[in-house]
Amino acid sequence: MTKQKLDTGTVKMRPLQRFMRLAVDADPDAEVPVGIVDEATRTTTFSFSSEAEVDTWYGTEVLSHTPGSADLQRINSGGPLLFNHNLDDILGVVEKAWIGADKRGYCTVRFGKDERGDWAMKQVQDRILQSVSFMYRINVYETDNNTDVYTATDWDVYEISLVTVPADTSIGVGRSGKGDELDVEVRRPQASSTTTTPAVADNEEGTEMFKAKKRLMNAVIETAVGGSAATPAAAQVDPAVIEAARTAEIEAMCKHHKIADETRNLLITLKQPIEACRGIVLNEVLARNKGKASLGGDNNPDLTEKEKAKYSMLRAINAAMRQREGVTDAWKEAGFEREVSMDIAKRSGKQTAGIFMPTNVAFAARAADYSFGTGAGLSPTSGGSSLVATDLLAGSFIELLRNKTRCLQLGAQILSGLVGNVDIPRQKAAGSTYWVGEGQTLNQTGASFDKVSLSQKHIGALSIITRNMLMQSTPDVEMLARADLLAQIALGIDAAVLYGTGTAGQPLGVSNQAGVNSIVCGPNGALITIDNLIDMETAVALANADSETMAYLTNAAVVGTLKKIKSGTGQYLWTNSPLGQRTGTPGEINGYLVARTNQARRGLTKGTGTNLSEIYFGDWSQVIIGEWGVIEILPNPYAAGSYEQGAVELRVMQSLDIGVRHPQAFSVCSDAQTQ
Fold this sequence. Notes:
Blueprint: E1 9-13, E2 16-21, E3 43-49, E4 54-55, E5 60-63, E6 70-71, E7 80-83, E8 86-99, E9 105-111, H1 115-125, E10 131-143, E11 149-163, E12 182-187, H2 208-218, H3 239-256, H4 261-269, H5 274-289, E13 292-294, H6 305-310, H7 313-324, H8 335-348, E14 355-357, E15 370-371, E16 386-387, H9 397-403, H10 406-409, E17 413-416, E18 422-429, E19 448-454, E20 457-466, H11 467-470, H12 475-499, E21 517-518, E22 526-527, H13 530-542, E23 550-554, H14 556-564, E24 574-576, E25 587-589, E26 592-596, E27 602-606, E28 609-619, E29 623-636, E30 647-660, E31 666-673
Parallel strand pairs: 5-11, 6-11, 7-11, 10-12, 13-17, 17-29, 21-31, 22-31, 23-26
Antiparallel strand pairs: 1-12, 2-10, 3-9, 4-5, 7-8, 8-9, 10-11, 14-29, 15-16, 18-19, 20-30, 23-28, 24-25, 25-26, 27-28, 28-31, 29-30
């Protein structure tokens, strides 16, 4: 076959295809067992790519599998498993794709529960379908002047297929795949040089790729909701590279969340920065899912239900603690938990001296009976009282965390699985209308916009656990330990929603938002009255921010005072809610629900007034809590006070941020006296 070398610079190519065998038996060279179908989960794992050389019409192609070369974001955003590359014949979904240490591309796919999915799973089980192909595009080739070897150092995956007859890539790149021709950059060294550009890891600080990504993250691109020109640093990055990455993420995100083609095309053509695009997509998903949305950036490993039940936080903490103490085989009994932590670290790009805990482990617990001694010591066999574990809500780590926060109970919206920063567009003012006479010119009156920006902030809590408890292996003790950590983080989130300062790493809470309605009881504070409550409600309504989900939130002292308010005829204005007593919403006043939590501060001062309390009122669905889903636990057996008692101090960290769509939807009173 005659070779036709590609010119240096930019050339046009269509997406390409490559073929591999689906190993149904254990492959001794594979990093993981491949080709074996798990009927319970309807999944199978196999290798779909390697650095094998492929002969083409222009030379020999090699797909580099060094860190940073393969962009798997598109395929990891719900990429399809197809039959014979037919976009209309979907067999399942790609749950996870990664590059192994053996420089192979691996994926775990889940077969659909429809007729085609059942058929495909059976064909793989029976070794009828044994060929795998995937469609990919090249962004950058590195080559040498003296050879015809083209190494792809930047490439991404479109889809993965089970195929009957693999494509013949030797017949010509551009004819082996479908789709429009795309730009591919071909790089050669200077004629005087015989060296090739080394591949570098994209997460190694100081490398050129790391610097380029950092410049890209810091670039400020003008947006339709207002912005500024790009910084000089951004100019050092090829605009074509920026646009290709932006477009690819938009296409993958819109496809994963079933966003209309019209919306996707507008996001691309209007040059919206990716942060704003994430916000617009989240807006649509929030509206569709009634207050909960996810960008799908989950850092959790793909664990089966059996593996989730097997996972032990206490076992992992114990191993991490033993490692800090210098024990050589510290992880001997917690190999599975260590593997999970390392997988989360790889996905999130973070490192820890402790452990990363998955956020999707189960939290169901059964009652347990433990007998304790009557003295200072503990004896599992001596007589005494019984400890029966409180029934914990079934669900995940994050779900349990959410159920303990009052603001979320009132309707705050959850954005989970966030990736990078998110800018949610917000309309500040509506356009005006005019009456005009015949022949007169209509004034241009457009709406004005700004944005609610979410970026990672980190909340932490310290907890103490005894060594005896740490060594326990019962499920109920495990759940008790997890719940204790969760309760502390939950309180911190609730407090940040209400009065986070926006400084020193804190999110900006409701009471400190610019534009929130401030209701004053008196110059030095005053006893809260029904008139003050009416003023709080009226301020929200005058801003056109009233809704059906409005509610009060305040502390127990204020609730006690509200219950005593009477009408002119001596009737109490408070309406009890016996069911709400159990959920922290004990009743209503003036037609609105009242939530009770001592997170609402007491002991405030104003002028000569002391021991004042705060009251919140508004539409709690305007609160947005964004989660990036990384839970870090670091044990410290040498902490002062804990060490002497033979206990261990635990530090738990969670990444999140808080935003408020429209501060005018809230009224805050911070000088209420109570009886």
